[in-house]
Amino acid sequence: MDTPELPRKRKRIGQAVGGRPRKTDAERQLKGVTVRLTTERYEELQGYAAEGGRSLAHVVRALLNGKLPYLTTQQEGLLRNIATMSNNLNQLAKKAHQSCFEAVANDVQQEVERLRELLNYFEKSRD
């Protein structure tokens, strides 16, 4: 009894035999590196990556490039608050110029104090 012959898949341009896409020249030039770390340092890097929702490889590449890989979500929130408060201060300064500084002096002082507290907290969170 003869077995029926199955139709052959045609090879697409740019694919190796078996259907796997061929690597580009840039992909072929990437090289891997193995690094041994102490348990403490490894856990520190893993925690750093997890805080920012990044991969461990992304964090290591960023550090090798001499850049901080990201701000944590908490730090990003603090920066947004600082930007909002700075905007509030600008609006208060405009109001003071339009009317009388004594009318907004208390509001300005409160905003400055809140901004100072946020900046101090941000500085401590970076350490």
Throw out a few tags for this protein:
mainly alpha; elongated
Describe this structure in words.
- The protein is mainly alpha-helical and 127 residues long.
- It folds into two domains: 35-70, no CATH class; 73-126.
- Helices cover 62% and strands 0% of the residues.
- It is built from five helices and no strands.
- The longest helix is centred in the C-terminal third of the chain and has 26 residues, at 73-98.
- The termini are far apart.
In short:
With 127 residues, this protein is mainly alpha-helical. It has 2 domains: 35-70, no CATH class; 73-126.
Give the structural class: mainly alpha
Tell how many strands the DSSP assignment holds: 0
Order of helices and strands: HHHHH
Helix content: 55-70%
> Could you tell me the mean pLDDT?
78
Global geometry = elongated
- Structurally, how many domains make up the residues? 2
Strand content: under 5%
- Largest sheet: number of strands, sense, barrel closure: none
Rg from Cα = 28 Å
Distance between the first and last residues' Cα:
78 Å
Q: Please tally the helical runs, counting DSSP H or I stretches of 4 or more residues.
A: 5
Q: Spans of 5+ residues with little confidence (pLDDT < 50)?
A: none
